Amino acid sequence: MSHLQPVPTGDVPAEAGVVSLASLLRLSARGDEQAFAELYDATSARVHGLVLRVVRDPAQSEEVTQEVYLQVWRTAARYDEARGSAMAWLMTLAHRRAVDRVRAAEAVNRQDTTYHQGSHVVSHDSTAEAAEQSMEARRVRSALVELTPVQREAIELAYFGGYTHTEVATMLDLPVGTAKTRIRDGLIRLRDAMGVGQ
Fold first, then answer.
1. CATH number, position 150
2. 141 lies in the same domain as 72
3. Whether residue 15 has pLDDT greater than 60
4. What is the pLDDT of residue 108?
5. Which of 16, 18, 32, 41 has the fewest CB atoms within 10 Å of its CB?
6. Is the per-residue pLDDT at 120 higher than 60?
7. Mean pLDDT of 175-180
8. Phi then psi for 80, rounded to 5 degrees?
């Protein structure tokens, strides 16, 4: 790994010697392997740390981290700077993939348990439950669009990324109070957009 300067979230002129994560993603989307390597060097420790906190298994966490960067390489063109920072996008991808790995492992464990018990009784309507969860997820995604980009970024880091207010503040280079305010305001706006409590 090369020793890079801290990578800022905004664009910096190339002559300054420091390239933003968003610029590295744009270059990676065009197949620039050097930019992708720099992106990896600048972000992999943080991405792996999040994955390890979710998966809790070092070997699987390394696999998931590799999967995240393979996904980043393949889908970097999908990153939209208007919807949040490059780091928030990476952390969201990492969190989703880590959660998917945990769910897959739990599903395998459930199948093994079911097989050994010899019979499986469904105590609830799993189809209805899955449909309800899918509809709720769509409502949340629709409501997230109503947030300002800074609110959405803070909410995604805190709730999808699993970061504390202090970590969010550090990642966004904000005072902790400002990060808390963005998260609180975003949650209020999200609640209103979803019609909760009405």
1. 1.10.10.10
2. no
3. no
4. 82
5. 16
6. no
7. 90
8. -120, 110
Mean pLDDT of the chain: 81
The answer to the question of residue 2 being in a domain is no
How many CB atoms lie under 10 A from the CB of residue 131? Answer: 11
Query: In this structure, are 119 and 132 located in the same domain?
Result: yes
**pTM score of the predicted model:** 0.54
Three-class SS string for 109-154?
Answer: HHHHHHHHHCCCCCCCCHHHHHHHHHHHHHHHHHHHCCCCHHHHHH
What's the structural domain count of the chain?
A: 2
- Residue 4 lies inside a defined structural domain of this protein: no
Give the model's pLDDT for residue 191: 83
Question: Do 172 and 191 share a domain, yes or no?
Answer: yes
Same structural domain for residues 60 and 124?
no
Residue 55: pLDDT above 60? yes
Let me know if residue 1 belongs to a domain: no
**Domain end position, chosen among 84, 113, 142:** 113
